[in-house]
Write a structure and sequence with these properties.
With 121 residues, the chain is an alpha+beta fold. It has a single domain, classed as Glutaredoxin, CATH 3.40.30. Helices cover 22% and strands 17% of the residues. The protein contains two helices and four strands. Strands 2-1-3-4 form a four-stranded mixed beta sheet, with helices on one face. Helix 1 packs across helix 2. The longest helix has 14 residues. 26% of the residues are buried. Bound molecules: FE2/S2 (inorganic) cluster (FES). The site of FE2/S2 (inorganic) cluster has 11 residues, from loops.
């Protein structure tokens, strides 16, 4: 998973985006824990802004998307990057900067932010 990213290329039918990151923005009102209670919206907004500012956004490059509950609430807030299917649990905006710079831009997984594999809902 530490292989360098292929350079941004024109979209193909196989993969319209080089990488796609989904942030759980789920907000619960029943008192159960949810990613929205831990800064998920701010992280999403920050990621989207950074990806755009770095010129990484668009077809053949990176797409930042909202998601509902990804069913890994116990590890939240979470985001997942495809096509590598790498799950991250982040704490602050510096973590998002690292995911953008290392993984989304350069294809290098941020090991220290990986969601523990046993954590689900
Ligand atoms: S509330 Fe975010 S993964 Fe379930």
């Amino acid at each position: 998973m530490n292989a360098p990213a292929p350079s941004a290329a024109a979209p193909s039918s196989a993969s319209y985006y080089q990488r796609h990151i989904f942030f759980c923005l789920n907000q619960r009102t029943n008192g159960q824990a949810c990613c929205a209670d831990y800064g998920a919206q701010a992280a999403f907004d920050h990621c989207k802004a950074r990806v755009k500012a770095l010129g990484l956004a668009g077809p053949g490059k990176v797409r930042v998307n909202k998601a509902g509950c990804l069913d890994r609430c116990a590890a939240g807030p979470v985001a997942v990057v495809y096509p590598e299917a790498v799950w991250y649990s982040f704490v602050d905006l510096a973590d998002i900067d690292e995911i953008v710079e290392s993984h989304l831009k350069n294809g290098v997984v941020v090991q220290r932010l990986l969601t523990p594999p046993h954590l689900g809902r």
